[in-house]
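Same chain as my last thread, 382 residues:
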Amino acid sequence: MAEVGRFLTQPEGSFFLFGPRGTGKSTWLRQHFPEALWLDLLDPELSLRLLANPSLLREMLEAQPQTEHVVIDEVQRAPELLTLVHQLIEERRARFALTGSSARKLKRSGVDLLAGRAGLRAMHPFLAAELGPAFELGRALQFGLLPLVWSAPEPRETLRGYVGLYLREEVQQEGLVRRIDYFSRFLEAISFSHGALLNLSEVARECQVSRKTVEGYLEILEDLLLAFRLPVFTKRAQRQLAAHPKFYLFDAGVFQSLRPRGLLDSPAEVGGQALEGLVAQHLRAWVDLSREANQLYYWRTRAGNEVDFVVYGESGFWAIEVKSSAAIQPKDLSGLRAFGADYPEASLLLLHGGRDRYLRDKVLCWPVDAFLRGLRPGQPIR
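reply #2:
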């Protein structure tokens, strides 16, 4: 695959770079810091040596005084190093890039993320605009946009193995759950909640485990950066609103891999979930990479009016609905019209599966393919 330019900007000082496995953190760092001292904590031998003797890091730097940058890959595997890293940053020995695919160990260790001495960045799956002409909507819906999967000669097999990688290395080896079979059942059950209001009691009944257990499983997913929740938009609320957040897996391909199929599952329903999730992951990345004070929400009233996404912040105010169909019916605009009545300041967008762009009832109807291709961090949604 041709080299892809990522929208992530290089911080000036030391920084954490969080993101799920396979999002391209190491590739990006090798491009930007080719001369760095590189410590890969996925190497069991190196990880054990540093855990036994964290001061080995100082000795390595002293042996290479010309070193300007240090990369510690998967730093959550040795959080004890961060105390020494903090000292070395204070001494201005080097700039550190610290990657992680899980915040769980850092949280459990009480790490303060270097007391603000290091910036925070996140690596997401590819954006359509990063891929440019290579982006294919149908392929993205089927296999997602993980660089690891997108560049694979057999993306289906790579995607199937990706979930197994997390189950084996992050969940099972770290002893995060007692029964891996229960957690596997939870992953299948939670996939039905992708793009929907999250009801943990229903998921618990489906898994035949307690609600508390499901809450713990969901926390693991979020700590591993594999899922996120959207809160309801409540600013200046004029109606009674839903209480539950919406749930999304972080990548459309991971959703497709986890979602069970059967005779009663409509391809249109599953495809609609995948499309909404693909838009969600793009908007989430746009919010994060734009480095402005924007937030992503959804909106739903107790009466049933709903808007899939609300983007609110310094960059603007947008309400966005996603429909996989090319033909837009009046009912498809009802949620946006209700939102526009309450918030006339908002720009109203409906993303559809067709090719035409037009204005209907003050709603800009926009092909979802064109919208995703044009979404760039630092630029307004338009």
